[in-house]
Each structure stands twice: as structure tokens, then as C-alpha cells.
Write a structure and sequence with these properties.
A seven-stranded mixed beta sheet has the order 6-7-8-9-10-11-12, with helices on both faces. A six-stranded antiparallel beta sheet has the order 13-14-15-16-17-18, with helices on one face. It is an alpha+beta fold. Helices cover about 35% and strands about 35% of the residues. The protein has ten helices and 18 strands. It folds into four domains: about 55 residues, no CATH class; about 140 residues; about 55 residues; about 110 residues, no CATH class.
């Protein structure tokens, strides 16, 4: 590094990709940018360990460490450096990306392929040393809107492994998207909470208090959603009941027309035109009746057709069946031999019932109605 040209800069964006050129970024941090065809790889060295192999980093990482956290909490504000703090736990060395107020240990992770076991080791060490561990992941190439709508399967897949880390289980996982940052926790509605920019860096020392406030806010919002859902369900039920009643009115109106005019209700009218039968059903005519029919054939000679009128308003049922005999006749056509049936009407039976109880049964022949005993 001594043979390279060193230029002092105040912003990582000023580090132009020129081979062999180093930049004095923060007095004790030196960076160089190696030009590549598609991307620029940033190398970094700490001055007191400059003989050490260059450590890889990213512009996103450097900006968070120096231009955001250090500028807000470090030497310019407290005369205490926040970045690259070396600590030891059980004899093992750990370098914290940003240590704020000797309380908050923040790791910034640009490379998402890193082993999560390594990240868990950092969490254990930082917590054991009395720090509050936080981890920020770089998803700035992805859209929060697509993630929130669950339509970006690649982002969801990349995030999946981080949901099994100590940072997530202990409410210390943050994800920065292109224009948004979210706080991920099982305690939050939908598993995350969108932070207002620049809420993370501004509230860094009070995030645990914010965590409780957010849970309280979301709990209140949940109760409000439940109240709205109940109210909406009640309104839906009222609307459905109104629709049902209106449909019933419409059906009864159509049914009234059918009773007077429809061919299907021909035998229903016959019952009301028959003085003997009418006395039993006279007060039931305004009920809503459904119609169905079926045919029974006996020995290839007799034919009985049943006309069933079932009330929806009660258990009243009117069954009107016509009994006929028939003979078969064959005749020739240009398409071959055909067969027809010649029917002769014989009599009818009418059964008035309510539920399983038969109220009356009638036999009608030659215009005469008899009550069957």
C-alpha cells in the first residue's frame, strides 16, 4: 500500500475505480477500488494492520458504517469511534462492524451467501459481552412492495434462511430494501414492521422501547381489524338476509304467475278448481310451491304420471297423479319402422299430505271426485 497513491476522501462515492490508487477514507481506513467489467470490488485495510490481507467489503457496507452510524454516533458527536471495534469472547476475536455507545452491536451483511452459523456465533458473543446485537441485511436490489405482496419468490427464498438465526429469534433482524427498511420478528403482524426512514439510525439506542411500542400499536390495530371484521360480517349477514327476503318476494311473485299460467302448474289449478279438494287447501294458495314430476310404467300397458307440488313455507305437499293405459302401434316411414303409443286417460288420484301425515286422498274419474277412505 505504501507504493500506491493515497487520496483523502470524505465519501465512499469519491473512491473512483482506478487501479493501484488507494483512498484515505476515515483516517485509519484505506480503500481501493479495482475496476471490473460489470462491477467494482472494494478492498479495505485498517492502518494499524495494513500488512494484513485486504478485506472485501461493499459500498453499501461502508456507507452504513461510516457515513451513517459513525457520523451520527461516532467521533464527530461523541469523540468515540464506532466502526471496526475489536472484542474478545472466550479467547476468540470478534470485529464488530459498528458498536454504538458501548451498548449496541450492529453487523451489516451485504453478502447473503454467508454461513448463518457464523452470524449466530457473533450474536452469542455480542450478547454475552452485554451488547444488544442487531443485524442489517442488504436487499437494496429488491423491492419491498413485491416482497410485501408475496410476489417476489426469489427474495422470500433468500430471506428464508435468516429466519432461523438468533438475530431473528431475538428480534434483532433488519432488512433494507431499495426504498424501505423492515424489522423482522415473529411478534409483529405478518412477521415484519416497516420502519419510517431514517427511523433505524435515529432510534438505534431506543429500538427495544420502540419494539414494545410497535407491538402495542399492532395489538391495537389488530383489535380494530377484528372489530371491523365483525362489523363487516354483521353488515354482510344483514345484506344477505335482505337479499334472501327480496329473492323470496321475487320468487313468490313469479310463483304466483306460474300458478295462474304455467303448464307445469296445470294440476295445481285443477285442485283449486275442484270444490271437494279446495276446502282443504284454500288458505294455502299463497305459499311458495315447487314443482317436480316423474312417471311410473306398469307392465308396458299402464302409465302413471305424478305431479308434485311441495310448499317451501310449510310441509304441505299436493300430489296429483294421472293414470292412463296405452297401446303400441307400428308404422313405416322413409327412415324405417317406427313405433308410437296411444294413450287413454282413465282416472286421477290426489293426495294431500303435511309432513309424513296424509290429510286426505281423492279419486277422480269421469269428472267425479270421491274421497278415498
Amino acid at each position: 500500500m505504501n507504493s500506491s497513491k493515497i487520496i483523502r476522501i470524505t465519501s465512499i462515492q469519491q473512491a473512483r475505480p482506478i487501479k493501484g490508487q488507494w483512498y484515505d477514507y476515515y483516517g485509519d481506513i484505506f480503500v481501493s477500488v479495482i475496476p471490473r467489467k460489470k462491477a467494482h470490488h472494494i478492498r479495505r485495510k485498517i492502518s494499524e494492520s495494513s500488512n494484513k490481507k485486504d478485506s472485501r467489503t461493499s459500498e453499501w457496507h461502508l456507507k452504513w458504517q461510516y457515513e451513517i452510524i459513525e457520523a451520527k454516533y461516532g467521533i464527530p458527536m461523541s469523540n468515540t469511534r464506532t466502526y471496526e471495534q475489536v472484542v474478545y469472547h472466550n479467547g476468540e476475536k470478534h470485529v464488530i462492524d459498528s458498536l454504538v455507545d458501548n451498548k449496541i452491536a450492529v453487523e451489516f451483511q451485504h453478502s447473503l451467501g454467508v454461513d448463518t452459523e457464523e452470524m449466530d456465533k457473533r450474536h452469542y458473543a455480542h450478547r454475552a459481552l452485554g451488547f444488544q446485537p442487531y443485524l442489517v441485511l442488504d436487499f437494496t436490489n429488491s423491492s419491498f412492495k413485491k416482497f410485501s405482496a408475496r410476489i417476489d419468490s426469489k427474495v422470500i427464498a433468500k430471506l428464508e434462511k435468516w429466519l432461523d438465526t438468533e438475530y431473528y429469534h431475538n428480534n434483532g433482524l433488519f432488512v433494507e430494501f431499495k426504498c424501505s427498511m423492515i424489522w423482522m420478528s415473529k411478534a409483529f403482524y405478518r412477521g415484519f414492521y416497516k420502519l419510517e426512514s431514517p427511523s433505524f439510525e435515529n432510534d438505534l439506542l431506543n429500538l427495544q422501547t420502540r419494539f414494545s411500542e410497535i407491538k402495542d400499536i399492532q395489538l391495537a390495530e389488530k383489535k380494530e381489524r377484528e372489530i371491523r371484521a365483525v362489523r363487516k360480517e354483521e353488515e354482510r349477514a344483514i345484506q344477505q338476509e335482505w337479499d334472501r327476503k327480496q329473492e323470496l318476494v321475487d320468487r313468490k311473485f313469479r310463483n304466483r304467475e306460474e300458478k295462474f299460467k304455467s303448464e307445469e302448474y296445470k294440476y295445481f289449478r285443477k285442485c283449486y278448481q275442484n270444490g271437494t279438494i279446495r276446502v282443504l287447501i284454500d288458505d294455502r294458495g299463497k305459499e311458495l310451491f315447487n314443482y317436480r314430476s316423474y312417471i311410473e310404467d306398469y307392465d308396458g300397458k299402464c302409465h302413471e304420471k305424478f305431479h308434485i307440488y311441495q310448499s317451501e313455507d310449510s310441509n304441505l305437499c299436493i300430489s296429483y297423479s294421472t293414470f292412463s293405459t296405452y297401446s303400441k302401434e307400428s308404422y313405416h316411414t322413409r327412415w324405417g319402422q317406427k313405433e308410437s303409443k296411444k294413450f287413454t286417460y282413465r282416472f286421477a288420484t290426489v293426495i294431500i299430505s303435511e309432513g309424513n301425515e296424509i290429510i286426505a286422498e281423492f279419486y277422480i274419474e269421469n269428472g267425479i271426485t270421491k274421497v278415498k277412505v
